[in-house]
Amino acid sequence: ETVAAVLPMQEHWLPQSNLDLLLPPVDVGVFFCYKKPTVAENLFTFGSMVSVLKKATAQTLVTYYVFAGELVHNTVGEPELLCNNRGVEFLEAFADVELRDLNLYNPDESIEGKLVPKKKKGCSPSKSS
């Protein structure tokens, strides 16, 4: 699912700095882990926690609108940031596994592509011809 900022915004372009152009593109993903609520703690269900996170993300993207944009190539092939409120990918999942059973020191070994899947949208690292 895609979550966009709760308020509309004017579409505009932001050029990359020289430093941005030198560094390779990096995908950033975030995942949250929560303690499974006990029967006595039934104030939050999995669905209600996800709903709160979606609303908070949409509100945060109003201030940090750049994160809701896309990295695209301009007419001369340089990457630029299109601030268009495309939104961010929001995935939810449930796993009945103990955190101590995951090797977070070497995530490529135990959780690669499972907690933070590969990006589906956005600019590819290399220019296509």
TrEMBL record:
Single GO MF descriptor = shikimate O-hydroxycinnamoyltransferase activity
Look up the EC number in the record and give it: 2.3.1.133
Q: What class of enzyme is it?
A: transferase
- PANTHER family xref list: ACYL TRANSFERASE 4, N-HYDROXYCINNAMOYL_BENZOYLTRANSFERASE, PUTATIVE-RELATED
Q: Which family does the record claim for this protein? A: Belongs to the plant acyltransferase family.
What are the transmembrane regions? none
What name does this protein carry?
Putative HXXXD-type acyl-transferase family protein
Which InterPro entries does the record associate with it? Answer: CAT-like_dom_sf, Plant_acyltransferase
